[in-house]
Design brief:
single chain; 68 residues; Alpha-Beta Plaits; four-stranded antiparallel beta sheet; 4 strands; 32% helix; binds copper (II) ion
């Protein structure tokens, strides 16, 4: 299991948290996803044999947020 913390711009409320946690959480290989609104960060625990960082970033981007 691997961990990554992504800096994500544009998340401002509970809706954003649900959108990001819901979409990333649905990816195969993602074990856990946690949004920290105050820090503008998304923490993800994932299995790198099933899902890559690029896919995770792309999924957040598709929800309309900016991954640095
Ligand atoms: Cu929001």
């Amino acid at each position: 299991m691997e961990n990554i913390t992504l800096n994500v711009k544009g998340m401002s409320c509970g809706h954003c948290v649900k959108a990001v946690e819901g979409s990333v959480g649905k990816l195969n290989g993602v074990e856990r996803v946690l949004v920290d609104l105050d820090k503008a960060q998304v923490h993800v625990e994932f299995n790198s044999s099933e899902v890559g960082v690029e896919k995770i970033k792309e999924t957040i981007d598709d929800q309309g947020y900016d991954v640095e």
